[in-house]
Amino acid sequence: MPHMAPAATVDHYLGISRLLAGQLDFRSAIRAVAAEIAHIIPHDHLDVCILMVDGNYHTAYETGMDTAWGNVASTPVVNSPIRSLLWGEVDYLLTDDAINDARFHFEGAFKRPIIEQSLRSRLHVPMKVQGTIIAALSCSSQTPGIYTMEDVARARIIADLLAPYFFALRSAEQAQQSAIVEAEARAREEGLRQGALKLTEALEQERQRIGMDLHDQTLADLTRLSRRIDRLARSGELSGEALEPVSRGLHHCMQDLRQIIEQAKPSVLQLFGLAQAVENHLDRSVRDSAMPIEWALADETAGALDGLEPTVSVALFRIAQEAINNAVRHAQPMAITVRLRVQASQLAIEIADDGRGLARARGRLGGGIDNMKTRARLISARFAIGPGRNNRGTTVSVVLPLGQSAPDAEARQ
User: Fold this and answer.
1) End position of a domain, from candidates 154, 170, 186
2) What's the total number of domains in the chain?
């Protein structure tokens, strides 16, 4: 390379320092100083490889040419063509022709840009802070054999100018990422805590409802029957005709108790599975409503439901149960459709009706929707509720990521 006057070189070094000021990210920093570096060390391609904090991965920020090195978020250091430098095994790398230099072509090396861009002359020096390598400065030219040891010395000065600034940028980025992770963890923890509180409240409300049902309905009926039996015993009229109303009353009490128990513990779910339990509840709810509602259930999961944990199955059933109840009681629909399917390792349950929609029924649905959201959150499922197709009716959907143990319907077909 032609000799440069010391004063001019110093001016370019000072220019690098001035241009770094105010740059807030790696890419803008390297591009800001590229022209000044080119006056000191001509290049067709310039990049800085930043080591991640763990030291096992690195990422490149480049200028002059866009290559595959700058298009990936991070890659293992073990695959870097300059890994020996990043590991501190050598103080610098200098080559007249990297295309034919074995040091850059070991098995697994991410060397494609060297060949594709014909980056023959290459110069690499480490960037250090307090003796620790944090990055590497790399200059490349398509012209072979242009770099010398004098260029290595200049590159080391440039690396010393860049290293503190890039170290500060890396520390700021790491602090930002740590803050985001911590904030997300806190949000999840708070969400689970609030979800648990809401679910506890919902369970307490359910317990109170069952207690009121038993007190106001079953206990009251049994009390009346007991008094009637006492009157019959005192009067001596224990004929079959006299006992027939008592028998009928006891039968009604038994039916009421079965219904209360069924609502408290979905035995169909335990015995026959989620799809059958949802279908059974849908059928019973429509029949009890005495309304001309058409209903259908499509199970397209191909057995994936069998792999669900019992607590997950119960939560999904309760969400479907609440959605069906809301549709039957408040939407005045002509039809209700439930669809269960598996796609891309996710289980989706969709309850759709063609009724009056959310806007007119929301006042009656608030608590139930909150309970559905809470149950979904506690099993790490996504919950959504909104207008149905063509803006008619309401659609409730729950999407649950499936673990490795749950079969994928697409794989089974």
Assistant:
1) 170
2) 3
